[in-house]
Amino acid sequence: MRATGESSVQVPVQTPEGEVPANVRIQSITAELIIQHERAYYPAPETTPAPPAHQDYRLGAGDIVNVIVWDHPELTMPAGEFRSAEQSGTVISEDGTMYFPFAGVIQAAGLTASELRDILTRKLSATIENVQLEVRVAAYRSQRIYVVGEVRQPGVLPITDVPMTAVEAVNRAGGFTENANRRNVTLTRAGDTRQIDLHALYKHGDTSQNLMLRDGDILSVPDRGFNKIFVLGAVNRPGSQTMGRHRVTLAEAIGDAADIQQFAANPHQIYVIRGGDRPKIFHLSSKSPDALLLADRFPLRPRDIVYVDAAAIIRWNRIISNLLPTTNILNNVEGLNFNYGTE
After folding, report:
1. In what order do the strands lie in the sheet with 228-233?
2. pLDDT tens for each residue of 105-160
3. 196 neighbors 187 (Cβ within 8 angstroms)
4. Nearest residue to 229 via CA among 255, 265, 204, 195
5. Which of its termini does the chain have fewer beta carbons within 10 Å around, N or C?
6. Model confidence, pTM
């Protein structure tokens, strides 16, 4: 790998015309680059209006409504006073209609509770004098969202008159588990999927991430198993490291790998290889210890590869070590041929 310029190997790069093989430009890790990355990593939080405490819930098929007609208990509790509001309520049928005595069949789906109350009041006024009634939703069953993945109680959540946001859905599902990846929560709506960074909401107050959910939405919380970085090359313990809730810098990744090998590593050739649709390669040359200050401010991302190149003398020693067995074999063969020829 070259310290400057472009990579010597072509990799798939996403372009408007599709994926094409291309060389990746190697960028030097400088103070300007770190400032640019930190602004992208910690963007200025967007403030959006807080969701309303209640919403005009629209009734749908399967919902159960409870109609209370004052001074007429025979209409309010026709099945007895010991039944719950849900048991004594009226279920909206699959075609969106409901039946109520003296009012007949009413198209209830799509109405709010107050709109249904006005219709019932108008219809019952033909039979009952001075009608006073109240309509309440006894059970919300027509609209639902799905919360799956790393939450304590995954499952189906009904949408009620309280607006359902991403944070509200996670809280109703029991909250995150210890292995939850809060940065890459995915929301699937009508076949389209987008990512939500709830860590930015909790940590930096970015309320734009707290999206309002709709009927049929799927909120998926992945685990942190994918959030790994890989430290390879001339380090004492090469391997993978799982990122936690907080960011990991280049210096921390190298430090967790038990630091670079003192004599085997080339401190001028430290690389960060970042994949994705548009791969990137970053190069840090620590010609002096001061340059490691840049490593402590350079944030890594999941699936980054940190590679510490070997020193030139180590490379030479490896070449010699690989050549020596072949040389010994050739010398032994030549010695056998010489002895065979002199006999």
Report:
1. 26-28, 280-284, 265-274, 305-310, 228-233, 239-242
2. 999 999 999 999 999 999 999 999 999 999 999 999 999 999 999 999 999 999 99
3. yes
4. 255
5. C
6. 0.71
